[in-house]
Write a structure and sequence with these properties.
Blueprint (H helix, E strand, L loop, with lengths): L1 H9 L1 H14 L1 H9 L1 E6 L2 E4 H15 L3 H8 L2 H25 L6 H16 L5 H8 L4 H30 L10 H34 L1 H36 L3 H28 L4 H12 L3 H11 L4 H21 L5 H13 L1
Antiparallel strand pairs: 1-2
Length: 356
């Protein structure tokens, strides 16, 4: 099983692309799965299958956190606080510039949909994948994990704040008159915080608690099966999230919108990674901490953003397209940024990987 999991992890980006192709060619099953919901309120919406899959993914991420590794990181809180703050504050600097630049776009509704989509993905906590990508580049892995946990715990505050900012940018005083302005305001008031708590924070904390309760030995033996379930879960979630946006995009082709979504997502993603690298230089981080800061700043939980967007904006492809684009592009940028570390650092990262 370990061999299969490792092979799937190596080809994960290609498999995600395949899920996108399947979602565009056969969107109907994904639409039906996305429409499944339980009569359990989560904020102002019901508990959907996508939320359950996201919660399972975050639970598995929590199972991978070793509390013992975090103790040394907490003894040096400056780097930890810097990474969390950089990831949380970046949308406040980037999104107003994007909204201002989109004022000249001929379709205000499309422009504002792109702003909301980018805001959703940038407001989400640091992606758990930042640890694995950072490990390949020689990052301080416990520091990245601590940043992910800290960002996740703050998400019930940062996600609503991000949506409040989006509401300001796309409201009557923003780039135009988005017909979903009321929806953005509703998400900011009631939906985003509850969604982040129920679908992101609690599952992650539950995974950490279960790991502590079971013990390191039992969890280590179960890790191959856990990783296998998680990979299937990620790909299914990828297909479901993409089905709505790509199905609409292909039913009503708009090449200009698709190109704009790709360009904006790529530009913002590259800027986020560059900001992390610049901050590591300004603060004179050592190499491992600097790489940790770069990946924490550059990677956001795009799966959570896609689930929230699919729940609240199922009819707006302009909201989902930049999130799906960002999801793929941040992995491409992360792969390019993950330069092979020096031999000493490579050995340390490999030892950590084997022990986890």
């Amino acid at each position: 099983m370990t061999t299969v999991v490792n092979a799937v992890q190596r080809w994960l980006l290609g498999l995600m692309l395949l899920c996108y192709v399947l979602a565009g060619a056969f969107p109907a099953p994904g639409e039906r799965l996305r429409g499944l919901a339980l009569p359990i309120p989560v904020g102002a919406s019901a508990l959907t299958l996508s939320m359950v899959l996201l919660a399972v993914m975050l639970f598995n991420a929590g199972l991978g956190v070793r509390v013992a590794d975090l103790r040394g990181v907490l003894s040096r809180p400056v780097r930890l606080a810097l990474g969390i703050a950089a990831n949380a504050l970046l949308p406040l600097l980037v999104l107003p510039v994007v909204a201002l630049g989109l004022r000249t776009w001929p379709d205000p509704a499309e422009a504002e949909g792109l702003v909301v989509g980018l805001m959703l993905v940038l407001a989400m906590p640091i992606a758990g994948g930042a640890a694995s990508w950072g490990q390949n580049a020689g990052a301080n892995v416990p520091l990245v994990v601590a940043m992910v946990m800290g960002s996740t715990l703050l998400s019930p505050l940062t996600v609503p704040l991000g949506m409040h900012l989006a509401g300001r940018l796309v409201g009557p005083d923003g780039a135009g008159a988005l017909d979903d302005t009321a929806t953005v305001d509703l998400i900011a008031r009631t939906g985003a915080g509850v969604f982040a708590l129920v679908s992101v924070v609690l599952p992650c904390l539950a995974g950490v608690v279960v790991r502590i309760a079971l013990g390191e030995d039992r969890v280590s033996r179960a890790l191959p099966a856990i990783k296998c379930v998680n990979l299937v879960n990620i790909l299914l979630l990828c297909y479901i999230n993409a089905a709505g946006a790509l199905g609409q995009a292909l039913a009503h082709p708009d090449p200009d919108l698709l190109i704009l979504a790709l360009v904006l997502s790529g530009a913002v993603c590259c800027l986020a990674f560059c900001c992390g690298r610049w901050m590591s230089r300004w603060t004179h981080c050592n190499r491992s901490d600097g790489v940790s800061l770069m990946f924490a700043t550059g990677m956001n939980n795009s799966s959570a953003a896609a689930v929230l967007a699919a729940c609240w904006f199922p009819h707006r492809a302009a909201v989902l397209l930049p999130i799906l684009s960002y999801s793929l592009l941040q992995k491409i940028v992360a792969g390019a940024a993950a330069r092979p570390p020096r031999p000493g650092r490579r050995g340390a990262a490999a030892a950590y990987a084997k022990s986890g």
